[in-house]
Structures are given as C-alpha cells and as structure tokens.
Amino acid sequence: MQQVPKISVITVTLNAAAELQKTLESIGNQDYPEVEIIVIDGGSTDETKQVIAQYIDRLSSWISEPDKGIYDAMNKGLAKATGEWVNFMNAGDVFKSPRALSQVFTHDYKDTDVIYGDGIADYSTFKLLQKAITLDDLWKGMPFCHQAMFTRTALLKPQGFSTEYTIASDFDLVYRLYTEKRNFRYVPNPICIFEVEGVSNQLYIKSWKERYRICKKYGNTSVRKQLFYVRLFTVFLFTWLGYAIFQRKMMYRIVKFIYRNNLI
Prior knowledge:
Spore Coat Polysaccharide Biosynthesis Protein SpsA, Chain A; 2 domains; 21% strand; 9 helices; alpha/beta; single chain
C-alpha cells in the first residue's frame, strides 16, 4: 500500500462544546488513514472537557488553558503538530465529506508548499459556495478560507501566525508565503463547511482595518489599491450598519439574494 503523508488537523475552541463535538466527529469520520487530531481549548467552563473525554482515544494531543486569542491558540496547536501537512478546522467547522482528505491527497505535492480549495459558508438556513479567488488578487483579501488550506508543517512552524492581528492573521500568513514565492496549488473542489452564524457585526470594520494594514505592510499602496480599500470600507460600513439596524435573519435574506447563484 502506498504511503500517504500524515495530516495534522488542529481544532481551537472556547466554550463551544456542541460545535466541538460536531467538528471532532467530522475529523474522526475521515476515511484518510493518517490523521493527527489536536484540540486546543482556551480554558472552557462549559461541557468542552466532557466532549474531549468522549474522543480522547482519537486525539493525539489536547490542551485546556487560557490563551491570548485565537492565533495564540492556533500556534499552540502548531507546536504540537507532527504531520507533514497541517490544517486548522476550528470548533463548528467540518470537512465537506468523509472523503475530503483522501480526495485532496490523491496527488503528488512534491513541489508544493500550500494546498488550497473552495469552502462552503453555512448560514444555518442556507449554504453558499465560496470559490477561491486567484492569487493575483491576493491584495484584495484572503483568497480562500483557512479551513480549506493545507500548509507544510515545517514551513509554518518557525513563525506561525502573527498575534499582532486578532482577525486577519491567516491573511497575513498567506500574504507572507506568497511574497516569499512559495508554491501554491489549487484543488478544484469544496473542502470544508464553516459556520457564519455568531460572527459579531463589529468585526467588519476591524477586519477592514487589519486587512488594510497587511496590504500596506507588503507594499501594495498603489492608487488603484487605495481606491479599492475605500470602496471596501464603504461595503463593510453598510454591512455593519445593516446588522446593527436589522435582525440577522433579514441580513441573511439579503446575502442569500445577492449570492443566489452560489447557493448549494
């Protein structure tokens, strides 16, 4: 039987016992033979530890202690990863199917540093396909969700995620790897389903600020790109106002109408 690379799947969580159980079930149900499951809990006070206990035989490692935020937690998981590739599937996120990993790792990625695919956004009452965008447009924002990304562990470990950002450190990571001319490879199929429910409307403006800082950090300050971020700020501002004024269900209806061609 052909040897396959070990994949480290890291799940970070905080007071999300039900979501964690769903995620661990999804990872555990993968038909891929070499999966290392790592859970990093930020010191939950709900039933998280009971959920961890249910899956303890499947876990390679787990921690339950306070952290300094999601990217600090992800770095803790990264420090424990021993797989050739690493993926971050946070509590509430799931793989698209039990064959998601085996479908991705049917190819030879000898000269590849980052593998990425499409994601599916789950709005609870409907789902939208989010196709990865071309890396030429990376300056516009994260080109794919981090749940649909596999990075060589040895490449990611030395620096990990920057804790300078609270929302967009995954964008910073991808931008850094891209500017280092690392090899990215696109897999043309959905890899994950991630939850949209529960995202604070206040994060839209903060996300814009962090994305803009990262764009400037890597020297993308042309007039065209400055104007793009002005327009993006307007979109984010109206989105923030929409969530502040209307109920979430109403905003979801608007999103569903705008992106109706991506419904699945």
